[in-house]
Amino acid sequence: MFPSTTYASVFLVLILCFNGVSPSSTPTKIGEGYRLISIEETRDGGILGHLQVKQKNNIYGPDIPLLQLFVKHETQDRLRIHITDAEKSRWEVPYNLLPREQPPVLKQTIGRSRKNPITVQEFSGSELIFSYKADPFSFAVKRKSNGQTLFNTSSDNCDPFGEMVFKDQYLEISTKLPKDASLYGLGENTQPHGIKLYPGDPYTLYTTDISAINLNADLYGSHPVYMDLRNVNGQPSAHSVLLLNSNGMDVFYRGTSLTYKIIGGVFDFYFFSGPSPLAVVDQYTTLIGRPAPMPYWALGMFHS
Ligand SMILES: *[C@@H]1O[C@H](CO)[C@@H](O)[C@H](O)[C@H]1NC(C)=O
């Protein structure tokens, strides 16, 4: 009785896992991720936590053992999630080139107290809600007004992606996505379909000075940002996700998930709540800067 039930459930799991995913397209899962070992509120209204690697391995180099997590609702419509090495500073887009709030300075001693076991918690702004799971650590971002999950890094056994990875020269993080979300962005490159993301297409950000006549190639600029348009029961909404990291990266969009694989730097996510595409662009350019208007005379003979 028992063995056959076990075989049946193993068989069921296999069917569920391989349904629609060919084994060759399943990327290797690296490691067991991190666990949250402390979390506290900061004086400026953010939250600060520490993550400890669960099981070290040497795939793509040793794991960074302790990470600092900083989360803050910086404005009504902007949520920032910053994850870096807790023990030494790492390369980030320089703060003098792109002026923005600095995460708290790294602590000299890191409390590993687990007096209050941490379970699912929420940290809410006016429209975006950050929530997390402690072990293995994952986070999600939800929209308050319609309950939609916008981003969710949690990985199940069947998912074609693993837990968060943080090495000196290899960072990986993924999110689940609803299959009917429409994504646009991840420039600059020459995808034949334009700026809409298509599942299975390669998106590499590794700035190169080549002619835009080459298809499926990356160009001069690196814009690791996408806008996600959704329709929930006839109600449209748009939001945007920026991963502020200037290192080379591959972004794998699979239709129901998206994985970033980066060769350095930190995870520095900014979520812009929209809800219209124009509001998203406004919120995004409030952070990264707006394009300068071109003087009319500079168009010379091309104005008409
Ligand atoms: C994130 O995904 C996990 C695993 O599928 C699920 O259990 C959890 O409810 C999701 N979280 C949110 C906020 O949607």
TrEMBL record:
Keywords: Signal. Coiled coil: none annotated. This is Glycoside hydrolase family 31 N-terminal domain-containing protein. It comes from Hevea brasiliensis. Residues 1-23 form the signal peptide. It comes from the Eukaryota. Residues 79-247 form the Glycoside hydrolase family 31 N-terminal domain. PANTHER family: ALPHA-GLUCOSIDASE (PTHR22762), ALPHA-XYLOSIDASE 1-RELATED (PTHR22762:SF127).
